[in-house]
Design a protein that fits this description.
By secondary structure, this protein is an alpha/beta fold. It has a single domain, classed as Vaccinia Virus protein VP39 (Rossmann fold, 3-Layer(aba) Sandwich), CATH 3.40.50.150. It has 11 helices and 7 strands. It has a 7-stranded mixed sheet with strand order 3-2-1-4-5-7-6. Helix 2 packs parallel to helix 3, helix 6 runs antiparallel to helix 11 and helix 9 packs across helix 11. The radius of gyration is 19 Å and the shape is globular.
Amino acid sequence: MARWDADQYSKFADERLRPARELLARVPHHAPARIVDLGSGPGTSTALLVERWPGARVTGVDSSSEMLERARRDHPTIEWVQADVATWQPQEPVDVLFANAVLHWIADHERLVPRLFAALAPGGALAVQVPDNENEPSHRAMRDGPEPLREKLAAVRPRGRVLSTAAYYDLLAPHAERVDIWRTTYEHVMPDADAIVEWVKGTGLRPYLEALSQSERIEYLDAYARSIEHAYPRRADGKVLFSFPRLFFVAIKTRS
């Protein structure tokens, strides 16, 4: 499994936290007692949950020891659990399951999403945000790479397949009191194309880089940077726009 670098991931903390804030704003629960943040990473999204519901028991769940070390250091009063979100199950029903930018790393959403929804207490909320950028230039270039490395790159395990908005709705609606679902493309203003490379080095590029030797990484990153510079040209002020689609849904479990 590719290792997470909390410092690299946190370079764009404000941009990464914006979708979490917007997802949280759409959760209608007023006084949940039990909240779990799945894929809590360095704890920034978990801290938002504590801030909104200070009286609740909030737990952050992540598989990365590196991320949890940072979370425990920065947020020592929050409960942290190391577990694989793909198989994690709560010991008791949960009022809010919050999953910001994590489920796209896990396969078989047709089974995963209903399983997580079933873990809710009646009236509970499953709040999910996933990057929906597999067809964006930033991610097509990851998979392509320079010709000599393509065989190695093809062996990298793909991320979980993100479904369509309609597919998620159909999975949840028969068992939900309400499903709020939407898709947004963020246009992040970046200083240059190199900043985009730095962004994805903290997320999507990790498995590809870890599959390569040190010399191959240099070759790969050089080719990737050229592709990004071509795909994201400078705008009138010299900066670049990093288009980043994300899919969101908040599903409320039927109370009866």
